[in-house]
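Need a sequence for this fold. Nothing fancy.
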C-alpha cells in the first residue's frame, strides 16, 4: 500500500478524492490530508507540496473556475518551476460540482430534481455550483434546501451544511462510471490515479 498526500480546496473536494482513491482497491492510502479554505490558501501551500511530492505522492485537486483551461491554470500556479515527480495536479472543469451533476440519475434522486432539468454537459456550464444551487432551491425538499442553500436577498448561496450533505452524496450515491461519461476531467483524473496506483504497486 502506498501512502499519499491529498491537497484540496474544501471538504467536498476531499470527499471526491477519497472516493477516487478508494477505486485503487487498497493500493493507495491517504496519510496526509491538506484542506485549506479556498484556492488562494492552497496556492500558498504549493511550495511545501512540491517539496513533499518526490517522497510522498501528492494528489492536488482544484477547480478551473474562470481560467481558460487547465494547462494555463497549472502554469500560473507553478510559474517557472518544473512539475516535480510525484505531484499529480488535477483540475475539475469548471468546478467540482460539475462532477456531481454529471451523475444525472443519482443526483436527481438525491436532490429530488427532475432528471430532464439536470444538464447533459455540466463541464460546459459557466458556473456549475450556481446551477446546482438554483436547481436545489427550485426543486428540492425543504430539509435539503435548508442545508445546501442560503439566500440573503442576492440569490442562492452555499448553505452551512453544503459540504457535509454533498459529501454524503459522494460517499453514498455517486456513480463514478456514470459521472465520467459526462465529465471528461473526472475521467482523466480517474485514469491518472489508476496509473499512479499501478505504477507503484
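Here you go.
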Amino acid at each position: 500500500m502506498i501512502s499519499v498526500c491529498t491537497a484540496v480546496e474544501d471538504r467536498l473536494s476531499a470527499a471526491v478524492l477519497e472516493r477516487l482513491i478508494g477505486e485503487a482497491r487498497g493500493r493507495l492510502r491517504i496519510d496526509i490530508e491538506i484542506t485549506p479554505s479556498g484556492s488562494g490558501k492552497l496556492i500558498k501551500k504549493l511550495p511545501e507540496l512540491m517539496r513533499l511530492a518526490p517522497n510522498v505522492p501528492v494528489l492536488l485537486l482544484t477547480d478551473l473556475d474562470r481560467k481558460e483551461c487547465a494547462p494555463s491554470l497549472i502554469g500560473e500556479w507553478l510559474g517557472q518551476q518544473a512539475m516535480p515527480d510525484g505531484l499529480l495536479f488535477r483540475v475539475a472543469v469548471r468546478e467540482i460540482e460539475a462532477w456531481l451533476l454529471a451523475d444525472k440519475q443519482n443526483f436527481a434522486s438525491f436532490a429530488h430534481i427532475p432528471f430532464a432539468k439536470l444538464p447533459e454537459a455540466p463541464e460546459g456550464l459557466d458556473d456549475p455550483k450556481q446551477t446546482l444551487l438554483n436547481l436545489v432551491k427550485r426543486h428540492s425538499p425543504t430539509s435539503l434546501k435548508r442545508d445546501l442553500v442560503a439566500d440573503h436577498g442576492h440569490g442562492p448561496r452555499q448553505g452551512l451544511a453544503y459540504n457535509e450533505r454533498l459529501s454524503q452524496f459522494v460517499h453514498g450515491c455517486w456513480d463514478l462510471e456514470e459521472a465520467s461519461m459526462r465529465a471528461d476531467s473526472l475521467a482523466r483524473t480517474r485514469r491518472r490515479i489508476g496509473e499512479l496506483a499501478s505504477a507503484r504497486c
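For context: Residues 20 and 190 are 6 Å apart (CA to CA).
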